[in-house]
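Lab manual, section 2.4: Encoding a predicted structure.

Procedure: take the sequence of the chain (351 residues), apply the prediction step described in section 2.3, and record the output as structure tokens. A sample record is shown.
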Amino acid sequence: MTGFDFDESLLVELTELHGVPGYEEAVRDVVRREFEGAVDDVRSDAMGNLVGTIEGSTAPEYEVVVAGHMDEIGFMVRNVDEDGFVQIDALGGWDPEVLRSQRVVVHTDDEDVLGVIGSIPPHTGGSDDDEREVADVSVDLGLPADDVRERVTVGDRVSTTQSTEVLGECINGKSIDNRVSVFVLCELARRLDDPPVTVHLAATVQEEVGLRGAQTIGVDVDPDLALALDTTVANDVPETDEDKYVTRLGDGVGIKYKDSSVITNRKVVERLREVADAETITYQHEVLPAGGTDTGGLQRSGGATPVGALSFPTRYLHTTTESVHGDDVAAALDLAEAFLATETGEHDYTL
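Recorded output:
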């Protein structure tokens, strides 16, 4: 029995699903399941974004989109060599150092095939990861070359496979980035009771390869206000200088000021802080030096849109074992709910 202020079972389910950029269907199916009966309308588009809409009770003409991306970093098959080893191309930002000896799943049209990324043992000198790129990585399926070529084709998707576990006060597993935000979207669908304004809960696609889904959402939905949900760096670990932490695990939800894709609207930031203070929700200030989020896509795609963002401090981002603190998840959920419940459409976010 955990001490979380939420039921983590859905979060565990979401993180263990596979959904690389452009192929998020397994995640989308679960989100659709969770939205059904909890929102007024559910629809998807040609890119694969899924939007659940809750009509506003007093100002339905004012529209807010809350977005979190479904995709995880992964790979695509680019070649099968003469010995049957599968060579891959990255979908999203990977550090090749973390890939040694990782189990992966190759998703073919007919079946999922388990494999492992090879690693040269230390007995023979090991490998020099400083010079290694994802293009140099090979996946071993443990099958004869002819069998591999028969079952695997160029364009098949590849994702890491990992169980999600509770580690003390944290939840640890693959694709915490960004299934934790998808989890919050599903929880908001249940929690929001007659919000004053219309709320679109948008589970977006292809964020890890350029914020692509969010850019199209901004055009199709054309919101008056946007709030993005995503993970952020928590480098509060040994051998990292404190000024490089960005956020700390367990110190509350991050309220974003900037990342490499966006400078958030200062009036939205101020209101998020005011709501957090009024509701006694723990938060921390986030300035992310590198890395973009859907916030940037939402801000510019449909014209000038006021945007804010809530971030989940996460250790070991873009690895197969990311960690998020239960208190930070609860704080983000509480702040998003309180912010939306008090959005009347009358706040002036123009600068």
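Check your result against the sample. The chain has eight helices and 18 strands.
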